[in-house]
Design a protein that fits this description.
Elements lengths: L3 H11 L8 E3 L15 E13 L6 E14 L8 H14 L17 E6 L4 E3 L6 E12 L1
Parallel strand pairs: 1-2
Antiparallel strand pairs: 2-3, 3-6, 4-6, 5-6
Amino acid sequence: MINRETIYAALWTIGPGAARFASANRRLRHWSDVAAAEQPALFMSEKGGHAAIKRLGAPIVWTLYAEFYIYVHSSDPYLAPGTVLNPLIDALEAALAPAPTTGIQDLEVPQMVQHAYIAGKIETDEGILGDQAIAIVPVEILCV
């Protein structure tokens, strides 16, 4: 049996410490509602889960899904917002990296999490036509 809030809270503790964010919150806000002074900003959204049973009578194995949203704003007309966004994506990836000794990222709740990792395509809008850049980083959490 897993405790979803414990797992999502553990994932969230990693995000804000990955880089210097001006604001961070688990409650997602639309980028247009986040002032330039509040950026770079980090938000997290829970995206549900998938249950599987490996064999009849075995316990449910859960995969939980979340997304980190990174918003950056560049007031400099000569600085592409993507140049501010890319290091923040890299920092989040480094923070979610597995332990070098085990190759596992268990979010420090090994009794519930087998591995957490960035999975799938990172969606970005690098601000080509404006001062705002956005990244959506998908995370999968394999539970035990």
